[in-house]
Design a protein that fits this description.
314 residues; 12 helices; mainly alpha; globular
Length: 314
């Protein structure tokens, strides 16, 4: 087990390296330059040239990348052009908010996805199955950012039940209840697509397991239907669902970019949107690398959980 975990961690190195190259190349293709964005109305040719020399942007792109990579290997992500503060401080300062949003969304998606998939499989071709299938289709087809805007119009503007933006109330508070009220809409919005995917796969896996011979044998021995479903069928179906939950964790982190922008959530996704608009290369690379590393870690945890659930993998 430990050898497998170490192997997966070592595989992160080429993945993150290739990702950093891709992000750096894409940022280099964006028109404009950070110096012009930073100086604004003071962006004369002389001031732009002077600032580019100070930031090291007058060097060739390969040299800029190698300089950044060398600093990264020493634990230094660089300094943000637009914010004038260390990239690591800004990224990890915002990453906690993103983890709260993504974690809440993944928990909601896992619970409702598993319950919906089991209910649809147990009552195949019934009304429950039809309703769950319909909701899954709607959930997969609906853009999250558009659904978030609808939620804001309904629950924040019309009904005034929930706050429309932010993580805490601007006039004070800041307790757990305040966080939950601000978290409700963005978490549900972000969880809908993942819930639909998990429910669909859970239904398919449960139907496959329920047709196995040992399920018929358990029923013939007099095991209750609840015991057959939850003690035998669900445990076997969960082996195929766990990796998908790990993959959905990555999609939830990626989808946080849109949701954090819609709900003004102070996380890493909103930070990346602002950094891209100002061509803050170091801030974008630092944020993307942290999100990518988290995605790999989530998949590793899912693989470990799958090994624990299924003794055959051990």
């Amino acid at each position: 087990m430990w050898a497998y975990i170490l192997k997966r961690l070592l595989m992160m190195i080429p993945i993150l390296f290739g990702l950093s190259v891709i992000v750096f190349a894409m940022m280099a293709l964006i028109p404009g330059d950070p110096a012009t964005a930073i100086l604004g109305s003071y962006a004369t040719p002389e001031n732009v040239a002077r600032l580019n020399r100070q930031l090291g942007l007058d060097q060739s792109l390969p040299r800029q990348y190698l300089t950044w990579l060398g600093n990264l290997l020493q634990g230094d992500m660089g300094r943000s052009y637009s914010l004038n503060r260390p990239v690591a401080e800004e990224v990890f300062g915002r990453f906690g908010a993103t983890l709260i949003l993504a974690g809440a969304s993944l928990i909601l998606a896992s619970i409702f996805g598993l319950v919906g998939g089991i209910a649809a499989a147990v009552r195949q071709f019934g009304w429950t199955d039809r309703i769950v299938t319909f909701l899954v289709l709607i959930g997969i087809s609906t853009p999250s950012f558009w659904l978030g805007l609808l939620f804001i119009m309904l629950f924040a503007v019309q009904l005034q039940w929930l706050p429309a933006s932010g993580m805490y109330a601007i006039y004070g508070g800041g307790g757990p209840l305040d966080l939950v009220r601000h978290l409700a809409m963005p978490a549900v919005t972000l969880a809908i697509v993942a819930t639909a995917v998990i429910a669909r796969l859970t239904r398919t896996s449960m139907l496959e397991v329920l047709r196995q011979d040992y399920i018929r044998t358990a029923r013939a021995k007099g095991v209750s239907e609840r015991g057959v479903i939850y003690r035998h069928a669900f445990k076997a179906a969960l082996v195929a669902v766990i990796p998908v939950i790990g993959i959905q964790a990555g999609f939830v982190l990626g989808g946080a970019v849109y949701i954090e922008t819609v709900f003004q959530w102070p996380g890493i996704g909103r930070m990346l949107v602002q950094a891209i608009s100002t061509r803050d290369l170091l801030l974008v690379q630092g944020g993307v690398l942290v999100v990518a590393a988290s995605y790999v870690v989530f998949n590793l945890l899912a693989d470990v959980a799958q090994t624990i659930v299924d003794p055959r993998l051990r």
